[in-house]
């Protein structure tokens, strides 16, 4: 894989057209950056079924199979990985001998830093000491060496600011549906709570997992995202037997209303009204909403509000012991305090795994998987 630097665009890129793999948020950043350097872009490629046949910033979005057909008729093709999940895509592209793969992670990471996304990437001094002390103490509760190596890689990244430390431990497994999750739910139907549903991207992963989701509860706080979510679900063909319910609620530790800051992928609810965009969102608790509904899995990626939302799910976790897949990268302390919090509620009932799902800092997920299915748990 070759690198594109913003101050040194390779001649192979300038003198030829390129395809971008990934049509999400980071693709928009890459498009604008490349266009500013007069790089010709042919089309985008994406694995999201809902994006196929659409356009992103005037560029067609192709499926992988459509791109494969194009490869058959070209001598050489340049493909830039825009997706932060580039490791999986890289493996898929390696089957084409005429494809040259490029990355521009450093370039768009500079842009992301300037946009102040809800990811806290810097840690030093006493804070770094606390990170090391707490994560080292938690390692004995993690279920495999890969999980422990993620903690170590993040620590090294804080010290060196070298993204290769993160890349080394990046998995190619699908976010939220790693092998252990699929094994746990194999052959069983289950309800899935999607906290931070955004515009419905999880649907593709559900379909590809082959698992039997009977009901998918989608919670999205930001109004524009919610409208897109409804539209996407309406246009999509859901797996047989699945029902989907979408709510324009945020999830919190109590029922209240909170202002929303920002739009799109990085929108979040805040407690400081001065930071908001004028939009106000109703906040719900998992315990209240699911008071009479069994919950089998909770997926959570809500831009730093995970601890708050878990605080409103204590009774549900005690009652149902759902499988948990929680983002822990938005705040340095979340890397350890989220696991510590879950352990206080239902510690011995879970096996814990940590996976790094992207080749950049972020997309780190803690998985708490029940040790024994449903009523067989015996508190050993």
UniProtKB/TrEMBL annotation:
<dbReference type="GO" id="GO:0032259">
    <property type="term" value="P:methylation"/>
</dbReference>
<keyword id="KW-0808">Transferase</keyword>
<dbReference type="GO" id="GO:0008168">
    <property type="term" value="F:methyltransferase activity"/>
</dbReference>
<dbReference type="InterPro" id="IPR029063">
    <property type="entry name" value="SAM-dependent_MTases_sf"/>
</dbReference>
<feature type="domain" description="Methyltransferase FkbM">
    <location>
        <begin position="194"/>
        <end position="352"/>
    </location>
</feature>
<keyword id="KW-0489">Methyltransferase</keyword>
<dbReference type="InterPro" id="IPR006342">
    <property type="entry name" value="FkbM_mtfrase"/>
</dbReference>
<dbReference type="Pfam" id="PF05050">
    <property type="entry name" value="Methyltransf_21"/>
</dbReference>
<protein>
    <submittedName>
        <fullName>FkbM family methyltransferase</fullName>
    </submittedName>
</protein>
